[in-house]
């Protein structure tokens, strides 16, 4: 189906729609919700345990021997038993296990949020790559259309000169072949625009037959560069992946506290009330109620020889997480340095190509005048036109590269 409707799309709208409809980010948001529920569950451990029990059943015939195992007696007993119980238990102290578990759940919630931010930055850069490709294709089409218009005018002049007997038919044929090649290149560019637009439509949750039109003014926006050291400081402070590793290290330290809590006693307050029938000792068919309140203290002696290795493992996990932080800091320095230099390189390439475009245009103008005055052959003119077209397309690609490397640098600094 042909794409008929078009939509102007800015970078901000690209990011907004892309984040909103990305399936991976939707999964990350669900994981965040699950982490919030786990945090609530961890806090519920502070609340008392309350149980209500009900038992009912048949009482078997009791047998009583008063003289060894001879002369058994069969006392009367009720046929049914009933038992109603209410048990209450409030933990008072568990060696900090509850507090550490709550802290762990809170950090896992923070971890889930940072994972979302990390994935979001990757997704934005992936969307931007497609957007810049679309951007470049639109500018290429603009250059090709202008070049075809000029080629058509040039072909008219060549046909006129052929009628006047100034040139041979060979020049006409070569000009027509060159024009055909340009038209094919334009058709391929328009097909590529359609394909990239459809890919973005799908990722942005829109009708895939909608033709997207990028914000071409973005090419000419001035982007100021900060110093390399400033970018490094920003990356250490803001990069979501760096924050995520720090959270993992904090989680590992918290795990040591949870493991060590097994060495400490558990203290809780309990209360219970039981209403039962019949009386358990005499089997009298009467209700009996009793209650009790007290403090329960337990100490897991087995943890003294079972838990040591787990504590050592938790400490080694902290060292491992700290090592991963150091590795990430090294990676950040390399990533920021690469993005910084590539962006500088892209800016310098644009300036160099601006001069090349001016030179190519002047060269084409000179060769066109020389050809029209029969001072140059058609090959020279077509070569000059090809050079001009190639340089203009290179400039479009370079301008697009500037925008992409700028956002790469923003991502490396944790600001995308």
TrEMBL record:
Residues 343-370 form a coiled coil. Its main location: membrane. The keyword Coiled coil applies. Pfam families: OEP. Keywords: Cell outer membrane, Coiled coil, Membrane, Transmembrane, Transmembrane beta strand, Transport. It is found in: Cell outer membrane. InterPro entries: OMP_efflux (IPR003423), TolC-like (IPR051906). The keyword Transport applies. Belongs to the outer membrane factor (OMF) (TC 1.B.17) family. This is TolC family protein.
């Amino acid at each position: 189906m042909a794409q008929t409707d078009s939509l102007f799309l800015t970078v901000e709208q690209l990011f907004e729609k892309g984040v909103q409809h990305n399936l991976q980010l939707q999964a990350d948001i669900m994981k965040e919700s699950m982490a919030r529920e786990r945090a609530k569950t961890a806090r519920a451990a502070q609340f008392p345990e309350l149980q209500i029990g009900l038992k009912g059943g048949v009482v078997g015939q009791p047998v009583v021997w008063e003289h060894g195992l001879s002369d058994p007696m069969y006392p009367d007993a009720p046929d049914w038993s009933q038992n109603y119980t209410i048990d209450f238990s409030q933990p008072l102290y568990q060696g900090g296990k509850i507090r550490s578990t709550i802290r762990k759940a809170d950090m896992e919630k923070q971890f889930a949020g940072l994972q979302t931010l990390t994935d979001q930055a990757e997704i934005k850069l992936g969307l931007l790559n497609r957007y810049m490709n679309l951007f470049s294709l639109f500018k290429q089409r603009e250059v090709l259309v202008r070049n075809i218009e000029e080629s058509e005018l040039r072909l008219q002049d060549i046909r006129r000169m052929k009628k006047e007997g100034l040139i041979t038919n060979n020049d006409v044929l070569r000009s027509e072949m060159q024009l055909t090649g340009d038209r094919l290149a334009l058709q391929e560019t328009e097909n590529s625009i359609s394909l990239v637009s459809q890919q973005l439509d799908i990722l942005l949750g829109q009708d895939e037959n909608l033709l997207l039109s990028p914000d071409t003014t973005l090419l000419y926006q001035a982007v100021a560069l900060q110093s390399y050291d400033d970018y490094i400081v920003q990356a250490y402070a803001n990069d979501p992946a760096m924050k995520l590793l720090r959270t993992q290290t904090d989680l590992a330290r918290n795990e040591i506290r949870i493991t060590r809590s097994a060495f400490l006693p558990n203290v809780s307050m309990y209360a219970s009330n039981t209403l039962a029938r019949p009386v358990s000792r005499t089997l009298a068919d009467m209700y009996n109620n009793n209650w009790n309140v007290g403090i329960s203290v337990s100490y897991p002696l087995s943890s003294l020889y079972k838990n040591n290795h787990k504590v050592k493992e938790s400490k080694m996990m902290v060292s491992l997480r700290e090592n991963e932080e150091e590795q990430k800091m090294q990676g950040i320095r390399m990533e920021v340095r690469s993005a910084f230099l590539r962006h500088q390189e892209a800016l310098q390439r644009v300036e160099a190509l601006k001069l090349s475009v001016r030179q190519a245009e002047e060269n084409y103008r000179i060769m066109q005048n020389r050809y029209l005055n029969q001072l140059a052959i058609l090959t020279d003119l077509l070569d000059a036109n090809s050079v001009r077209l190639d340089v203009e397309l290179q400039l479009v690609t370079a301008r697009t590269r500037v925008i992409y490397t700028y956002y790469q640098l923003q991502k490396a600094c944790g600001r995308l």
